[in-house]
Amino acid sequence: METPKETELCFPLFLNSSCSKLKRPHAEVVFIYIVLSSISLLTATLNLLVIISISHFKQLHTPTNLLLLSLAVSDFSVGIIMCFQIILTNDCWFLGDLICTLYCTLEFVITSSSVGNMVLISVDRYVAICDPLHYHTKVTIRGVTNCTCLCWLCSVLYNSFIMRDNLKQPGKYNSCSGECVTVIDYIAGVFDLFLTFIGPVTVIIVLYLRVFVVAVSHARAMNPHVKTLMFQQSVAVHIKKSEIKAARTLGVVIVVFLTCLSPYYCSSLVGRNTLFGITSVPLETWLFYFNSCLNPVIYAFCYPWFLKSVKLIATFEILQPDSCNANIL
Q1: Which end of the chain lies in a sparser environment, N or C, as judged by fewer CB atoms within 10 Å?
Q2: 27 Cβ partners below 8 Å, 6+ apart?
Q3: H or E element: which one contains 188?
Q4: Is the dihedral of CA 129, 135, 141, 142 positive or negative?
């Protein structure tokens, strides 16, 4: 017969109102904190390198890289807010109801902006591959800047609206002291699921399927042993190899993103905390956070400019005059 796990209070001085927490072995607690803190630090550091690289070096000021910059800002923010999730690993929240509500709202804002950035990246690759002759006129730095700013603004306004009840009365749904709970209306939750997951994912998949078809046609047109239609050849001539390579790289980023994000949203369909986790925080949440750490790693393997810029940053050559004009491509 199993014996119940030993528990203790989050706030021992408030016997009647304090939440309870599981008492874990000291070695387990240390291990959890080290692993999660390392992921948080690595995520913030790697994405900060991406932000500095694209912001500083003028050669990287392209529409596609500006979208990567916006995504890196989202991922960097994830690395920062992971500190709050680490606090929750002991089942207790000590920072107050207002901070709890702001933290949850920020988490939703970052999630929505990340999805929005992925949609914009898909649109960028769609135009670059499927309409290469008009890419530079349709996709400009100014236009991408406006789109990314609009994406962040809409994310802030939208999530502030669906979290309005929690923001008006922080801690309204907490059942005891030391708990961090926010509740969204059921109808708003269903609408949010379609608006921030099902709809965007459908758009991303449709656009990238089209990109894949055109990329395959381009590859066949470049093969002298395969006869292709004249319009395939004319389109293929105007598609740069660099655009195809960027499409592959960003395709990997999108596939990894969807793989890590899907469990996070699927769990909301059947109830939160349905997947096994080593802490009180569900595993699908940590999987979503870990995706933010993977993106810069993908860049390191696929983009030579990222490694070159990291070297310049690490050796402080970035501080030299006119370093922004360095040739890193």
Answers
A1: N
A2: none
A3: helix 186-193
A4: negative
Longest dimension (CA), the chain: 81
Rg (CA), the chain: 23
Question: Partners of 8 in the beta sheet?
Answer: 21
Neighbours of 226 (CB within 10 A): 10
Q: Which residues of 131-160 are buried (b: 16+ CB within 10 A; e: fewer)?
A: bbeebeeebeeeebeebbeebbeebbebbe
Token pair in block for residue 196: 């921030």
What percent of the chain is helix, strand and coil (3-state, nearest 5)?
A: 75, 0, 25
- Who contacts 115 (Cβ-Cβ below 8 Å, separation ≥6)? 196, 197, 200, 261
Interatomic CA distance for residues 99 and 120, integer angstroms: 31
> DSSP letter at 10?
S
CATH number of 23-320: 1.20.1070.10
- pTM to 2 decimals? 0.82
Q: What is the pLDDT of residues 180-237, one digit of tens each?
A: 888 887 788 788 888 888 888 888 888 888 887 777 776 666 555 444 444 444 444 4
Residue 193: in which H helix or E strand, if any?
helix 186-193
The Cα 315–Cα 311 span in angstroms is 6
Contact (CB, 8 A) for 151 and 70? yes
Whether the Cβ atoms of residue 32 and residue 279 lie closer than 8 Å to each other? yes
Tokens standing for 156? 């802030």
Q: Provide the residue count of the chain.
A: 329
Pairing, β 20-22 against β 7-9: antiparallel
**Helix, strand, or coil here: 308?**
helix
CA atoms of 319 and 179, how far apart (whole Å): 46
pLDDT tens, residue by residue, 61-99: 999 899 999 999 999 998 898 888 777 777 788 888 888
Element (H, E) at 318: none
